[in-house]
Amino acid sequence: MKATISKRGFLQAVGAAVGVGAVYRSMQALGLVSTEVAHEVWADLPRGSGEGKSVAILGAGIAGMTAAYELSKAGYRCTILEAADRAGGRNLTARAGDVVGEVDGRQRVNFSEGDHLYANLGPARIPYHHGTILGYCKEFGVGLEVFTNDNRAALFHNRERFDGRPVSARRVITDIRGYIAELLAKAVDGTSLDSALTVEDKERLLQMLVQYGDLNADHLYKGTKRGGYRDGRLNAGLKAGELDDPLDFSDLLKSDFWEYKLHFDDFLDQNPTLLQPVGGMDTIAKAFEERVGSFVRYRSVVEEIRKSPKGVRIVYRSGLGGAVGTLDADFAICSIPAPVLKDIQNDFAPETKAAIESVAFAPAIKIAFQTRRRFWEEDHAIYGGISWTDQDITQIWYPPYGYHRDNGVIVGAYVWNKDIGLRFEGMSPEERLRVAIEEGERVHPGYAGEIEAGVSRAWGKVPFQKGAWPTGKEAPAALQRPDGAIYFAGDQASALPGWQEGAALAAHAAVAAINERVMGK
After folding, report:
1. Kind and range of the H or E run holding 101
2. Could you give the CA distance from residue 302 to residue 181 in angstroms, rounded to a whole number?
3. % of the chain exceeding 90 in pLDDT
4. Which has the closest alpha carbon to 144: 125, 118, 129?
5. Nearest residue to 388 (alpha-carbon basis) of 227, 189, 255, 219
6. What CATH class has 34-86+292-359+471-518?
7. Cα–Cα distance for residue pair 469/490, rounded to 1 Å
8. Which of 362, 373, 465, 370 is nearest to 420 (CA)?
9. What is the second-level CATH architecture of the domain 93-153+270-280+362-461?
10. Confidence bin at 225 (pLDDT 50/70/90)
11. What one-character DSSP code corresponds to residue 94?
């Protein structure tokens, strides 16, 4: 009798023997996936498989450098055209002496020298499940540390509630839990749940609610030591402390805290543990640049993207008013952000052009301040985390590193709302700092006196970027398949807009698809 094996069993055997790349090729051969659509695959290309083939890579951001790194290991001849004078794209860390440019001006970063005095003006955190980027960090020896996203000592501020005073996150969270637990306990004590619960179920549910909300013996919420003690004391000390009065339930309901701020860290990409590279996010970009920097032509502004009999022809200009050059290659991987790409001359297919036109980017804003002392630690025992306000600045981030140093850098505003972002875009850099300081003062009285220097980044005004990340719910299908010999990458071609992981995965997909085509699979 002839032995048989299922497709699943066959693929498992292939994977065990020769790796995931072979599994992917086998899936294509079996008709289980299409060669035309970008897939999330590891780019483990066979050594030498790209010998004699060339790839023009447009953009030296994380996507472009990821593609060049993987392709070059397989023998492809890569050339990266980067319009700016630096690699990394939206991966940008500001330090003392740096110059941050926008279309109508430049800001010098007047921070002091110090390994803890920097601001990540682009991506600033890496979720624990973003395995591709974390994998590169491990491969390249990029050190990581915990990024504190959620901190119960941080603040919630709503101008119309609690007399406009900021309140600690621990009080907001514990009081809301307590009130909800009390309401549920009343329902359990009554008869409304008799048909759904047994007597034993009701008893255990009541016990759970008492513990969850810290209810008293009458199943009422009267406050809890989980929220701290009166006069801002966090501990009882040598004697039992006096409990703070619960926040007014009506005010809590009328505030905007519960709309998403309370469960912000429940969003999958905000779940702890989050990580960051030691010394700044651009450590990742620099690690890539060390490996592919020889392929990069900086200050090379792409002016035309054309299909050719050989594959592709790229027309670019070297620097402002510089010479025009051409780059011919067998393939191209384009990671130029859609708001920029749509204005570059091309002969893309109509559906590709339409897809590019459809992608809008967020006009996000970040404003960072160096402070003379770490007042958030000294005065409020806040070590990392984020405070929220209903003012335009939206968030204040406290650095999860450099603890107990003399000074520090905080993010004094992080804005992603379109209307607010455009409002900040229209301000001068000096005015942005002024507004952020004024609004920060309402969260931290005395804030203005702590500020020593500041810098802002309006991503909608950044040359060759024109925005922070794609705002759509999913990437257009046309950007996940090739247009002739032109492939697309960057987070705009992924299901993870705004994350370096999305950029790297899209690069992997493009790289794998090119290699499959070269190998005739």
Report:
1. strand 99-102
2. 60
3. 73
4. 125
5. 255
6. alpha beta
7. 10
8. 362
9. Alpha-Beta Complex (3.90)
10. confident
11. E
Length of the chain: 521
Separation CA 341–CA 56 (nearest Å): 15
Sheet of 144-147, strand order: 126-127, 274-277, 144-147
- Give the DSSP per-residue string, 278-300: TT-THHHHHHHHHHHGGGEETTE
Q: Can you tell me the distance from the alpha carbon of 414 to that of 426, in angstroms, rounded to the nearest whole number?
A: 16
Please tell me what DSSP assigns to residue 231: G
What pLDDT is attached to residue 240? 66
Per-chain mean pLDDT for the chain = 89
Architecture of the 169-255 domain: Up-down Bundle (1.20)
Q: Identify the helix (H) or strand (E) that includes residue 134.
A: helix 131-140
User: Which has the closest alpha carbon to 448: 458, 459, 435?
Assistant: 435
pLDDT at 515: 95
Q: Could you tell me if residue 326 is left (phi over 0), alpha (psi between -120 and 50 degrees) or otherwise beta? A: beta
Tokens of 514: 């090119």
The whole-angstrom separation of Cα 64 and Cα 71 is: 11
Neighbouring CB atoms inside 10 A of 2's CB total 3
Is the separation of the CB atoms in 461 and 102 below 8 Å? Answer: yes
**98 near 280, Cβ under 8 Å?**
no
The angle subtended at Cα 348 by Cα 73 and Cα 29, nearest 5°, is 50
Assign residue 19 a region: left if phi > 0, alpha if psi is -120 to 50, beta otherwise? left
Query: What is the model's pLDDT at position 115?
Result: 97
User: Are β-strands 54-58 and 77-81 bridged in parallel, bridged antiparallel, or unpaired?
Assistant: parallel
Closest CA to 382 of 394, 396, 372: 396
Contact assessment for residue 49 and residue 518, using Cβ atoms and an 8 Å cutoff: yes
Q: Which two tokens stand for residue 32?
A: 């289980």
The domain ranges of the chain are 34-86+292-359+471-518, 93-153+270-280+362-461, 169-255
b/e map 453-468, b = 16+ CB within 10 Å: bbbbbbbbbbebbbbb
Instruction: Give the mean pLDDT of 465-486.
Output: 95
**Helices within 359-457 (DSSP H only):** 375-380, 418-425, 429-443
Q: Residue 74 has which token pair?
A: 């397989």
